[in-house]
Amino acid sequence: MDVGFPVRVVREGGVEIVVPDMDVYRRPNGVYEPAWAPVFYNPRMAFNRDIAVVFARTYARLRGLDKLVVVEPLAGSGVRAVRYAVEAGAIVFASDIDSDAVYLSRVNAERNKVSERVRVEKADANEFMARLPRMGVKPTIIDIDPFGSPAPFLDTAIQALRPRGVLAVTATDTAPLSGTHPRALRRRYDVRPGRLAWEKEQAVRILAGYIIRRAAAHEYGVRILLAYYVDYYVRIYAELWRGAGRADKSLEQLGYGAYCYSCGYTSLASNPLERCPYCQAQLGIVGPLYIGKLCDESFIEEMLREAEKMWDILAEPDRVVKLLEQLLKECDIVKPYYRLDKLCSILRMNMPKMNTVVEELRNRGYNATRTHFDPRGFKTNAPHWAVVKMLLETRR
């Protein structure tokens, strides 16, 4: 195969694909840089793709769908499209603006014997999605996995979706979403910027809220089935239902996040206070963002069952199960996580062991767990005064 650049064959999940030779495109420190390769392939996103196929299989089974139609408008090497076809039995419509990427995607579809179910075109992502309704394509899932922000693709994706379907969205622009670059956050997501102590959950909730707002503009309601932050990206699975009434109901799930830099108080609210109810200090406020549950427990339980069935197929099955089990523990706790190190710094005390904190809160009748967002974080439904009281009493 002559594509004008060196390639190698790798195995990911249940597929075998041809990708640019990663040894050729490494930084001086030896780290492979996907953006330097002529066709984009990021092996670190294998876990993301694992979750995607588990989600797709679970969603199709629960909906009783005979045909799962997936759209992947930023195909790159085609690995995601091919995995959807091979591992989830999907019919996939994919595109990429780069000719080499289109060629490599077709090679990989043929290599895995799914050419008849993976259609790849050379096209701009938005142009491609805009043509889908005219082509009679009714996607069940549209998977937006860009290098950077997904914002430029959301409106077109929403309009291309069937009356009930899923947007699976990745964002790697976590610096703006977490508040590090406030101007970019305001430009891209139309959000009052700030940086809260629970910055990774902030990033997830801002993106989920933005999806809800864009969907409402096209009269779609949104149900967040799964949302998380791992490695260096945010990932959201949002089920959209057409209907103005559903859109209005979804907008009720928007609000603001608040954090007190003086005492560590944190909250989500439709209409947040400007001053901390505990110490009266000025609150840091960010929003609008999503203030509801970040996952659907029954759906996560079904995904866990599906992941067990796929154990020998997935690239990182242990990690998939570990994340889903942790999310299941966090689902019921809507209140944002605490950063234990920051809270202890405010209280001018040594940091106790995380497991001790979680166990003590449970002993006092509250729901509490560590969080997937941050190894230094914990989530609890305990009011702020109870968290502070527990920490001060634990110090003794």
From TrEMBL:
Transmembrane segments: none
EC number: 2.1.1.216
Annotated catalysed reactions: guanosine(26) in tRNA + 2 S-adenosyl-L-methionine = N(2)-dimethylguanosine(26) in tRNA + 2 S-adenosyl-L-homocysteine + 2 H(+)
InterPro entries xrefs: SAM-dependent_MTases_sf, Trm1, TRM1_arc_bac, tRNA_met_Trm1_C
Primary enzyme class: transferase
Record-level Gene Ontology MF annotations: metal ion binding; tRNA (guanine(26)-N2)-dimethyltransferase activity; tRNA binding
Domain of life: Archaea
Binding sites annotated in the UniProt record for S-adenosyl-L-methionine: 49, 80, 96, 124-125
Record: residues binding Zn(2+): 260, 263, 276, 279
Repressor listed as a keyword: no
Keywords for this protein: Metal-binding, Methyltransferase, RNA-binding, S-adenosyl-L-methionine, Transferase, tRNA processing, tRNA-binding, Zinc
Family (UniProt): Belongs to the class I-like SAM-binding methyltransferase superfamily. Trm1 family.
Designated name of the protein: tRNA (guanine(26)-N(2))-dimethyltransferase
Lineage: Archaea, Thermoproteota, Thermoprotei, Desulfurococcales, Pyrodictiaceae
